[in-house]
Amino acid sequence: MSGVIVSMRRTLLSCTSLARNGLVGGALAALLPAAPAKAADLVDTLSLVMDFNRQELAVLATALALLGFSVVAAILLMRTRVRTAKNEARLRARIGELQLQADRFGALLFAEPQILISWPAGDDRAQISGDIALVLPRDSSPQRVLAFGTWLPPEPALQMDHAVDALRERGDGFQLTLTTAHGHMLEAIGRAIGGQAIVRIRELSGLRRDLAETHLRYKALSDETEMLRGFAAAAPWPIWAKGENGALTYANPAYVRATEATSAIDAQERKLELLDSADRTAMERGLKDAANFTSRLPIVVGGERRIYDVRAVNVGSGSVGVAIDASEADALSSALVRMAEAHRRTLDQLSSGVAVFDGQRRLAFYNDSYRRLWDLDRNFLDAHPDDSSVLDQLRAARKLPEQPDFRAWKAKLHEAYRAVETAKDTWFLPDGRALSVVTTPNPEGGVTYLFDDVTESLDLARRFDGLIRVQRETLDSLAEGVAVFGSNGKAQLFNPAFVRMWKLSSDAMRDEPHIQTVEGWCHQLFDDPQVWRQIREAITSIENRVDVPLKLERKDGSVLDGMIRPLPDGATMLTFQDITDTENVERALRERNEALEAADQMKVDFVHHVSYELRSPLTTIIGFAHFLSDPSTGPLTPKQAEYLDYVTKSTNALLALTNNILDLATIDAGAMKLELGQVDVSKAIELAAEGIQDRLATDRIRLKVEIAPDVGSFVGDEKRVVQVLYNLLANAVGFSPQDSTVGISARRTERSVVFTVTDSGPGIPADMKDKVFNWFESRSQGSRHRGAGLGLSLVRSFVELHGGKVRVDSIVGRGTVVICDFPTDQAAHRDAAE
Questions:
Q1: Can you tell me the distance from the alpha carbon of 371 to that of 381, in angstroms, rounded to the nearest whole number?
Q2: Which carries the bigger pLDDT value, residue 7 or residue 416?
Q3: When comparing pLDDT for 228 and 589, which is higher?
Q4: Could you tell me the pLDDT band of residue 669, with boundaries at 50, 70 and 90?
Q5: Signal peptide: which range, if any (predicted)?
Q6: Contact call for residues 401 and 429 (beta carbons, < 8 A)
Q7: What does residue 449 show for φ and ψ, rounded to 5 degrees?
Q8: Across the chain, which distance is largest between two alpha carbons, in Å?
Q9: Strand 702-707 and strand 741-748: pairing?
């Protein structure tokens, strides 16, 4: 009893101490782990009591009040200790049994070399047990065991990683057979047991290894067989297998469809064959003689005859075969042959030399142009020589470019057989020809040579380049500004004159500016929007491309004469010429011409007016002179008669001069009209000669008249023709010396009547021939001739009014010949009169 009291006293002290530290509940829970519900109530009560432990007096009072309860607690504690001791003894015995059982299982588990790797649920840390040296050296760390890539090849290591991840994440078990990097065969089994992921790895050896290898081979063979069966079933070609006796043992669906069977069994039972008897016999013979058979045969499938490539081979005691549809290939092959033949015929028609060498560098094809280009023997080429032989023969004939190292040159040329891209070169032959050589590697091996004679092309190119340079130099030296704009409106060509004329920058023009940009630069000199719009439209338009003349008066006072000219290539040339000086001169000349025309008109008007005013008094004087000379008016003294004769001659001469001036003025005014009719040539000459009889007698000049018998008559104004002949005779008499001869002749040609008047006067100098027909142009040239210089002017005017021509042939000192042509065509008269 005293022991119980001592125990209670110790318990009380312990409770007091625990209460001070706020740990009463924890202590009681430790002391009474198996107490009944009353013990729990006691703990709650003590916890409430301990809440007043803040003051020492409260704690002591509470301890005294619980003294009785502590006795009960001590008794219960003793019972609990006794029960705990018994449970502990049983637990130790059980643990011993479990330890023995675990040792037996461990001994059994590790009776053979293996590794166990376990991952508790929710824990990434792996526990490894077993013989690590199974896969790695004994001193290796467990971390290397979990790094499968350190001791397994890449593919098995990746397979192991995926299997372990699936086991840990979803509990998927696995069984793998692995081969290490050192050649060891391992078995890896993964299972989810008791909430843990466990992987067992052990080495396969002996019978198990053999079984595993056999299993693997069987599985691989089974997979391969299944794959082949699936391939045969999916293949679109008929595939079959036959036994030793030649009976059908397998047929795929394509074979079944080709033989129109319902199934493979139906084809076997009915012994349906794909080939006809002759082809089967040939196939059996080939399999017997060479263990294989290959041929392209026609087979009727679905009522349609098609071409198949049939291949069969002996396998074991039987044979297998396949028929591949080659109808399209056969058709393509035939088409390829025809196309190749067509290409050969086409290449034979080319002017370019073509030679094709195969992969063995032997000549496989050549066209006739190639043979003619190199002048090679056809028999030599038909023998399919190699590339080197052809080059050597050409070199011996000095038909190849001269080379200092021919072997190196040929080796470089033969690099085309190993090249992948086309190469181009130009050969300059000793005979002066230039050849363009293109070497093209063939996809199937070999090289194709293409030879073109470019001698003429190069010559034309040189000439063209020369012409371009000449054109450039010509444009640069032109005073005209020239610019060429393309169809896109950009400047393509220009010369320095254009740049200077518009005060532009040569560098800016080389950048090919657009016409709108050039227009903006030129606005400072010329800003007429209508003209610039016309230039833009002419340059950029597609239709209505015609020459457009321009005349620009710029702000600086200069005047440009321009032209927009479309070129054949779609471009447009714009030219400008500075005509400021020409324009100023033209303007001055125009003003002067207008002034001269006004003065000439004034002269004509004056002459016409004066001549008209002179005719009235002259007519009166002439009338009174005739009246005085009439005997009825009374006798005149000799002196009076002489004076009256002088008056009459002078007034007649003045009247003739006045009439001539009036005629010329009328002709110049365009008012002269001819009175056309039949002109008798003989009569006209006679009338003209009568007018100069007194002058002929005075100067002792003989008139010689020659009229052709067939001259006849022509249409003209007889009065004006007589006036022409009179003036010509009077002029000839005036310039002829005394005791000389003046001649006049007339003859008819096919289209005219020709009058010729000759004299023996001093002749006309060369510088005077163009002036003898001008008004008032009269020079005596040392003769007795005196006149106003209107006679020949009237001659030319009247002849030209008739549509004829007048010409003068004269040699100084030998006389003058004047020839007048009067046309016999009435249309010429009408045109002249109009």
A1: 8
A2: 416
A3: 589
A4: low
A5: none
A6: yes
A7: -100, 135
A8: 231
A9: parallel
Could you say which DSSP state residue 677 is in? Answer: E
pLDDT band at 745 (very low <50, low <70, confident <90, very high): very high
**pLDDT tens, residue by residue, 593-605:** 888 777 767 766 7
d(CA 464, CA 457): 10
Q: Which tokens sit at 468?
A: 């371009």
Measured in whole angstroms, the distance separating CA 809 from the mean position of its chain's CA atoms is 72
Residue 185 pairs with which residues in a beta bridge? Answer: 179
**Closest Cα to residue 64, out of 43, 78, 85, 49?**
49
In angstroms, the CA 802 to CA 286 distance is 116
Whole-number pLDDT of residue 209: 58
**327-347: buried (b, 16+ CB within 10 Å) or exposed (e) per residue?**
eeebeeeeeeeeeeeeeeeeb
680: enclosing H helix or E strand = strand 677-680
How far apart CA 626 and CA 648 sit, in angstroms, is 8
Instruction: Tell me: pLDDT of 42 over 50.
Output: no
**What is the separation, in whole angstroms, between the first and last Cα of the chain?**
183
Query: DSSP code of 417?
Result: G
Would you state the structure tokens that stand for residue 672, as one six-digit string?
């002269």
d(CA 687, CA 720): 12
Model pLDDT for residues 196-207, shown as the tens digit of each residue: 888 888 777 655
Average pLDDT over residues 33-54: 43
CA 562 → CA 136, 483, 488, 577, 611, distances in Å?
100, 11, 21, 6, 51
Q: Among residues 579, 532, 534, which one has the least CA distance to residue 559?
A: 579
pLDDT for the residue 27: 36
Sign (positive or negative) of CA dihedral 709, 710, 712, 716 = negative
**What amino acid occupies position 572?**
T
CA angle 804, 807, 813 (to 5 degrees): 155
The Cα–Cα gap between 34 and 468 comes to 122
Long-range contacts formed by 71-77: CB under 8 A, 24+ apart: 71/4, 71/8, 72/42, 73/8, 73/11, 73/32, 73/39, 73/42, 74/4, 74/7, 74/8, 74/11, 75/4, 76/32, 76/35, 76/36, 76/39, 77/7, 77/11, 77/31, 77/32
DSSP per-residue codes, 490-551: BEEEE-HHHHHHHT--HHHHHT--BHHHHHHHHTTT---HHHHHHHHHHHH-SS----EEEE
Residue at token pair 């009474």? 32
- What pLDDT is recorded for position 108? 54
| Residue with the two structure tokens 């790695």 | 136
The pLDDT of residue 45: 43
Cα–Cα separations (whole angstroms), residue 33 to 41, 76, 92, 550, 586: 14, 11, 19, 126, 141
Cβ distance 495 to 478 under 8 Å? yes
pLDDT tens digits, one per residue of 389-398? 999 988 888 8
Query: Region 150-160: what's the mean pLDDT?
Result: 80
β-pairing verdict for 491-494 and 481-485:
antiparallel
Type of residue at 589: L
The yes-or-no verdict on residue 666 having pLDDT over 50 is: yes
Tell me the C-alpha distance between 327 and 307, whole Å: 5
Position 630 scores a pLDDT of 72
Pairing of strands 434-441, 423-428: antiparallel
- Characterize the bridge pairing of strands 292-301 and 304-315: antiparallel
User: Rg of the chain over CA atoms, in angstroms?
Assistant: 70
In sequence order, the 6+-apart residues with CB closer than 8 A to the CB of 427 are: 400, 401, 434, 435, 437
